[in-house]
Amino acid sequence: MLRKRLALRLTLIATIALMLIPLFAAAALGIGVLGAYGAWSILEPKWPAAAIFFGTLSFVSMSFFAVRLLSVLFVPLPSPEGVRLSQEDAPALHQLIKNMVWTLEAGRIDHVLVTPEMNAAVLQRPSSGFLGRVKTYLLIGLPLMHSITAPQLVAVLAHELAHLAAQRKGAGKHAALLRAWWLRTLDRIGDVFPVFGARVDVWLARFYGDMARLARIEEFEADAYAIKVVDTDLFSETLIEVSLKEQFLSNDYWPRVLAQSCVRAKPLVRPFRDLCLGMSAGFLRRAAVSDMPSDHGGLPQSMHPTTKERLSALRVLPKPQKASSYDFPTAADYYLSPLLLTLAWVFDRAWWRDVRPDWRLTYRKACRAHCRKARTAKHDDA
Predict the structure, then answer these.
(1) Which residue has the higher pLDDT, 43 or 11?
(2) Cα(199)–Cα(322) distance, rounded to whole angstroms?
(3) How many other C-beta atoms can be found within 10 angstroms of the C-beta atom of residue 72?
(4) pTM for the complete prediction?
(5) Is the pLDDT of residue 59 over 60?
(6) Which pLDDT tens digit goes with each residue over 187-212?
(7) CA 252 to chain centre
(8) What is the pLDDT of residue 327?
(9) Which of 149, 181, 279, 381 could form an SS bridge with 328, CB 3.0 to 4.6 Å?
(10) Distances in Å between the alpha carbon of 48 and those of 33, 56, 97, 344?
(11) Are 147 and 120 in contact (CB under 8 A)?
(12) Range list of H helices, the chain
């Protein structure tokens, strides 16, 4: 299988590269020791002070380089962020996830988190930094759950858990962590050694391209795996719905929320609390995907295929959503109804903390511009 061969090759490259870095650090330290010994042997008979100076300089400089080189390996994965849902908080959602895990033979989900993002994802993290048992986190965005119905959430979970079942079990799980480790190391090399960072990126251009190619193949494979347990029409309907709602949020809803900064010191609405109302009032459904972007914003190859590409791979023609689908409650209402106000309050507070400086700066600029216009108009009238 192409995906397995590509994953194996990239994992071997990452493993060898990660092993070479300590070897290079040891070699640098050895060069420092040899340089110190050579300086002492050559200069000590006539210039002992110079021998001490150059010997110390050689050892200290190469030791510093070795330590800096080793430091690029110690870049831990960021911890998943979100509000953790316990079994008691959302029993129906946890039961659905358990049923899907059992059906897909996807292993185990350790924690379920709700995030403020318009997506769902499965993340795996070693429990003790670089070592320990690998824990699996399922992240589900609150905007996503407001955008789809309860049956459509099943299709979303099927795709995400298919990644675990098909690609992140056993050795595949650890291979993915090794590849991610090497990518973080490359980013760190660019920060620690800027001169070498650009050169390394040129050398590894093919590696980066293959990583993007692997990510795309994994998305297509997860789709194909998911439709073994989810109806194809429901799955394609969910892809279209998520794409259209994501466009609405990014191109309409959030710009309207942020546009208030030109006229108000504080937002009139709380974006996460009013998300469901804004979705139902402002979203205009389009029956087909003709308005969806068909490219990746000018990029030669994105790591995530477009909705059209995913539908084409499944050999499904875009169809308007069935009228019967509107009868279902949203996934947020169905699974998180008692928690929605609390979750919205948490995310609204975090959002306002992040945007408040820029919001107030925009408001002050708008006020000054308004005052200038008023003075100009008064002057013209006079």
Answers:
(1) 11
(2) 53
(3) 20
(4) 0.85
(5) yes
(6) 898 888 887 777 887 888 889 899 99
(7) 23
(8) 60
(9) 149
(10) 17, 12, 73, 72
(11) no
(12) 2-43, 48-71, 91-104, 142-147, 150-167, 171-192, 194-203, 205-226, 232-248, 254-259, 275-282, 307-313, 331-336, 340-381
